[in-house]
Amino acid sequence: MTTEPTSENKCAPPDSPALGGSGHRVEQRWWATTLEQCPPGLFYYNGDFGFKTEYQDQNGPEAYCVGSGEYFWGGTNGDKEARRKLLVIPSLIVSNDESSHGASKI
C-alpha cells in the first residue's frame, strides 16, 4: 500500500540520466511506502539504494544496502518495528534504448 504524497514523504531519488554510462537510469514509480509494504526489488532511502527480497526473517522484511551488501536497518538501531515502518521509495532500473521506443523495465 503506497501513501499519498505529503510534505513528509514527498521525496525522490536524484535525477539519474544514466548509470555509469550504461544507458540505464533509475526511475521513481511510486510515492513513499513502508519497508514492509514495499514490493521486492530496488528502493531508495535517505540518499542510498537498498534491495528488498521477497523473504522475511526474524527482523521483518529481508533488505540489504546496495552499496555495501550489509543488512538494511535504516538507522533504526535494531528496532524491528521502526524498521518495518520506515518510508522508502520503490524504484526501477529502466533502459534508455531508443530501439525499444522509450523506457523499458530490465
Tell me the layout of helices and strands.
Layout: E1 24-28, E2 33-34, E3 41-45, E4 48-57, E5 60-65, H1 80-85, E6 87-95, E7 104-105
Antiparallel strand pairs: 1-6, 2-6, 3-4, 3-6, 4-5, 6-7
Task: Give an overview in words.
Helices cover 6% and strands 37% of the residues. By secondary structure, the protein is mostly beta strands. It has one domain. Strands 1, 2, 3, 4, 5, 6 and 7 form a seven-stranded antiparallel β-sheet that branches. The longest helix has 6 residues, at 80-85. It is elongated and about 40 Å long. The model is unreliable at 1-18 and 98-106 (pLDDT under 50).
Describe the largest sheet.
Answer: 7 strands, antiparallel
What is the average per-residue confidence, as pLDDT, rounded to a whole number? 76
Number of domains: 1
Which structural class best describes the helix and strand composition?
mainly beta
Uncertain stretches:
1-18, 98-106
Q: Can you give the helix content as a percent range?
A: under 10%
Task: Count every beta strand, where a strand is a DSSP E run of 2 or more residues.
Answer: 7
Shape category: elongated
The radius of gyration over CA amounts to 14 Å
Question: How many angstroms separate the termini?
Answer: 23 Å
Bin the strand percentage: 35-45%
Helix count?
1
Q: SSE order, as H and E?
A: EEEEEHEE
What attributes characterize this protein structure?
single chain, 106 residues, mainly beta, 6% helix, elongated
Give the structure's gist in a few sentences.
This protein has 106 residues and is mainly β. It has one domain (24-105). It has one helix and seven strands; from the N terminus they run βββββαββ.
